[in-house]
């Protein structure tokens, strides 16, 4: 008896990110997402991510989940949602010039940021507010994503900035000082999420499900076989100083963490930024996730 074979269906997903997601790197190396053709590009800023989503140039972005609260207030789709959490947390170190060794030293400082009203800077603004440092006591200078901020701070263009792996370790090696850690101040601070437009969700559902199914397998492998994950990340060109942090970044679940999202809402409320009048259910749509 002859068996008919169903045709193999290949999905295509267009994504922007600041640096490749460790989950995606491991999934690709272990051939866990072979049924998805990923067109991923590095973007220079969160504004570039929003523009690409708003115009439909990309299907999704990997970004700070706080961005959604700001983006949904801008002229555009107004329906952006976090559909998955791709990192347990985003390790963020506040680094500065040698004369800026502690948070109180940031009075009068110029802080290099991606954007002044959204993203990781909201956590830093909350830290400064808790230290009694008002917004008019420092200046925010937008320079772009983590690569751009690293280049600028090492070149001496500003006084301090937030950096994640491997750029934080590289900055310290270049002679900058370690001022503080977002994770030490806020243990539930969540990692980056995958953001899409709710209006495009049904069209993207089969592709997103296929890709996230592979990332879920990679997430489990990073826990059960961390050596394979280390090898995949090292082969992809990440420095040894960053690989361990990336392996540890695997989330407990791809479902966005409620405590983490609610922390972001509270930080935005603390510093008086618009968009804080939302709730978890309005920001998150986990309907395309595979079962844990």
Description:
By secondary structure, the protein is an alpha/beta fold. It has 2 domains: 11-89 and 190-283, Periplasmic binding protein-like II (D-Maltodextrin-Binding Protein, domain 2); 93-185, D-Maltodextrin-Binding Protein, domain 2 (3-Layer(aba) Sandwich), CATH 3.40.190.10. It is built from 12 helices and 10 strands. The strands form 2 sheets. It has a 5-stranded mixed β-sheet with strand order 2-1-3-10-4. Strands 7-6-8-5-9 form a 5-stranded mixed β-sheet. The longest helix has 24 residues, at 201-224. It is globular and about 55 Å long. The chain starts with 10 loop residues before the first strand and ends in a 9-residue tail after the last helix. The model is unreliable at 1-8 (pLDDT under 50).
* Major sheet size, sense and barrel closure: 5 strands, mixed
**CATH topology category name of the largest domain:** D-Maltodextrin-Binding Protein, domain 2
Strand order of the largest sheet: 2-1-3-10-4
Could you give the order of the helices and strands? Answer: EHEHEHEEEHEHEHEHEHHHHH
Radius of gyration: 19 Å
What is the CATH superfamily label of the largest domain?
Answer: Periplasmic binding protein-like II
Instruction: Give the terminus-to-terminus CA distance.
Output: 38 Å
Query: Outline, from the CA principal axes?
Result: globular
Q: How much helix, percentage-wise, in residues?
A: 25-40%
